[in-house]
Amino acid sequence: MIQRKTAASPTVVTRLPSSSKLFVLDTNVLMHDPTSLFRFEEHDLFIPMATLEELDSNKKGMSEVSRNARQASRYLDEVIAALQNDITEGIPLASHGDKAAKGKLFLQTEAINGTLPSSLPSGKADNQIIGVVKHLQEKHPKRQVILVSKDINMRIKARALGLAAEDYFNDKVLEDTDLLYTGICALPENFWDTHGKNMESWQQAGHTYYRVTGPVCSSLMINQFLFLEGDQPFQAQVKEVSGKTAILQTLKDYSHQRNSVWGITARNREQNFALNALMNPDIDFITLLGQAGSGKTLMTLAAALAQTLEEKNFSEIIVTRVTVPVGEDIGFLPGTEEEKMNPWMGALEDNLDVLNHTDDEAGEWGRAATRDLIRSRIKVKSLNFMRGRTFLNKFVIIDEAQNLTPKQMKTLITRAGPGTKVVCLGNISQIDTPYLTEGSSGLTYVVDRMKGWPHGGHVTLMRGERSRLADFAAESL
Predict the structure, then answer these.
(1) pTM, to two decimals
(2) Which of 66, 71, 269, 288 has its CB 3.0 to 4.6 Å from that of 61, i.e. a possible disulfide?
(3) Which domains, from first to last, does the chain contain?
(4) Rounded to an integer, what distance in angstroms lies between the CA atom of residue 301 and that of residue 309?
(5) C-beta of residue 69 within 8 angstroms of C-beta of residue 51
(6) pLDDT tens digits, residue range 31-72?
């Protein structure tokens, strides 16, 4: 706790730089990101008793929130265990081993009776925390005291009382998702004029390679897709970048029927880029972003079936998704794990129906046999039972990945063993999970962190190809 000002004992505030702020943490910040304790750099943290009480009441259970509550409690225990002096002096966070956290942690060590309006009942934990913020602000008028909460209504209440309140921003990968890496770059019209000098080209394994040098090359990422429109259209993928020199590889044209994947052809440029990434054996991790109807699931399933059943690169296909309902929850579902997941897998069923009708010559019996073969190779799994598993030679599809937190995303991707390919599909404008935003979604997180990795690929699909009705609805509604 911050000490009272006495003649013998000066306040902690006077010993700290004026730029150092005091952040009061709400419980939902710790339950959202337990490492938030070490993410406030040189600033100090204050944890009210109400926050500790709420952490304690949420620690039981197997949900992600409960796990985070337990982890936050463990971090607090580690920090307090390293305490050398009086707890009211503040506990240096750097003692935990995280050198980026240069501030101190203060715990509430005395009863605080902040004067709140009578309309705010004091029995509610949120109002008790607001009362603590008000008390600290009155006690330290020269210091900036800020409430940090993921709860919008709590921030509104605090601001209505003239207190500073902020969202927890440290989990946001990007402030503006328009800046998110798209995996695609349009080359300038004069590209060959500015980059064609001393250019080398050669052919290898059915692809043409170009070694080009110029100013654009330094900004390129490995496995980024490039295109040039005009009289001589050009599409390529970046294979190597070294300073102002890059090696580009031409793409396979999946828009032509002869290169169809399980009967599916690319209908636009971005779909062609996506199929090149999905069918590339050197790329182990792929993220596909796009609006509804842009072909993410259909292309991924087609590529998975072609590589599992035709090319025999993978032993089976594993499909999983976050079970977050759009409307009211319909309650518990009967049956085995796979049967419980079936209602969530409507998208998988719809796309399998399309893929099953691509072979017109097979006839009804042939299609039925194919359907049974496909079913035997596709396993539908729940996210709840993924911890501790290892997937060997599997094609793993994570659907609706925008509803995953960064921690859940890490848990899933680290399940991949040798020979496994992981594909994450999602639309960051359709997030159904509470406290997740476009900037803090696990899908945004992996797109940003995995860009430029030699065995990772990303494509943002721009156009919907479902129907004219779906396209118009996506734009106008």
Answers:
(1) 0.72
(2) 66
(3) 12-166 (3.40.50.1010), 177-250 (2.40.30), 260-476 (3.40.50.300)
(4) 12
(5) no
(6) 888 888 888 888 888 999 988 888 888 888 777 788 888 988
